[in-house]
Amino acid sequence: MLKKISVDHLTLGMHLHEFCGSWMEHPFWRTKFVLKDQKDLDAVRASSIREVWIDVVKGLTRRRGFARGERT
Question: H or E element: which one contains 42?
Fold first, then answer.
């Protein structure tokens, strides 16, 4: 299941599905990956991107830890 959140709410372990904005506004060559490194998280927050889509099935969510069994 996809969920749109502010980059201020991103945490390590979340699976980024898509950045909200132009591909030129973020520092990554790919858009779908798990945030594993603090410097990647810092780079997202330092970019002009303000919101992202996360996949709660493939990574962490803020409220529940690892999400299981939900699908879009």
Answer: helix 38-46
Q: Are 1 and 55 in contact (CB under 8 A)?
A: yes
Residue closest to 19 by CA, chosen among 66, 52, 58, 59: 52
Give residue-wise pLDDT tens across range 13-63: 999 999 998 877 777 888 899 999 999 999 999 999 999 999 999 988 765
Does residue 71 belong to any structural domain of this protein? no
| Total domain count, the chain | 1
Expressed as residue numbers, the domain containing 8 is 2-66
Q: What is the pTM of this model?
A: 0.78
Question: Residue 70: its pLDDT value, please?
Answer: 40
Is 72 inside a domain boundary? no
